[in-house]
Amino acid sequence: MTRPAVLITGAAKRIGAAIASVFGRSGWHVVIHYGHSRVEAEGLARELPSAETISCDLADPLAARAMVESLAARLPDWRVLINCASIFELDHATALDPDVFERGMRVNAATPTVMAQAFLKQARAGGGKRVIAITDQKIANPNPDFFSYTMSKHALAATIPMLSMARDDPRDRIYGLAPGAILASHDQHEEETERSHRMNLLARKTGADEIARAALFLADGWLASGETLFIDSGQHLLSQPRDVLFLARV
């Protein structure tokens, strides 16, 4: 294989699929990870010039690490790991749900970290490796809704500078990419989505393609390691008392 490789978790749908499409059409071999969306993952793989699918339950960090180790052993130029998959379940700052908390911290923070560590240690890549952690603008603009989810994204964001300081190869880069409201989430209907996604400084909808192009930019490693890009039309610069999902409801 002559193409550089990228693994994107949760790449069968939504933002992950948008990222996979941009990388695939930019000359990369794309490893499309999925949990349960096999049909969508395989359909996307057929659309790209060079792609494969792989399945793993990200609730199991040991299985996720084994997946990374297996890919590292056979991909000759694996340059980028994008930890995009996450779960978004509702609880509140006044009533933490222990089950929601445990699932969120494991899938959204612990497993991506274990994968990043294994990737940085074992993958072979020309010119250094890149880890891109998809966080959330909530790391700068928190509110009491989706409490456990937000804590998990703060935990993931904290790993970015720490992994960067601990890296062995100075050519490696660890980045964060923090989207705002991009696609319909939770139980939103179309009218709510249109209103909520414009609750930012520019009063505009941020597209999934913008996140994908930002990820492709980070894959080149022009920024210093440890940096986070916010792609949210300025939403993280506001102070919003609730998730925009609820602010948009009338």
The shape, in one word, is: globular
Q: Count of DSSP E strands? A: 7
In order across it, which strands form the biggest sheet?
A: 3-2-1-4-5-6-7
Strand content: 5-15%
The residue ranges in which pLDDT falls below 50 over 5 or more consecutive positions are none
Measured between the Cα atoms of the first and last residue, the distance is 54 Å
**Treating each run of at least 4 consecutive H or I residues as one helix, how many helices?**
8
Order of helices and strands: EHEHEHEHEHEHHEH
Major β-sheet, in short?
A: 7 strands, parallel
CATH architecture: 3-Layer(aba) Sandwich
CATH topology title = Rossmann fold
Rounded Rg: 17 Å
Q: Can you describe this structure?
A:
There is one protein chain. The chain is α/β, with parallel strands linked by helices and 250 residues long. It has one domain: Rossmann fold (3-Layer(aba) Sandwich), CATH 3.40.50. Helices cover 41% and strands 15% of the residues. It has helices spanning 14-24, 38-47, 61-74, 98-122, 147-166, 190-196, 208-219, 244-247; strands spanning 5-8, 29-34, 51-55, 78-83, 130-134, 173-179, 228-231. Helix 4 links the parallel strand 4 (78-83) and strand 5 (130-134). Helix 1 (14-24) packs across helix 7 (208-219), helix 3 (61-74) runs parallel beside helix 4 and helix 4 (98-122) runs parallel beside helix 5. The longest helix is centred in the middle third of the chain and has 25 residues, at 98-122. The model has no long low-confidence stretch (mean pLDDT 96).
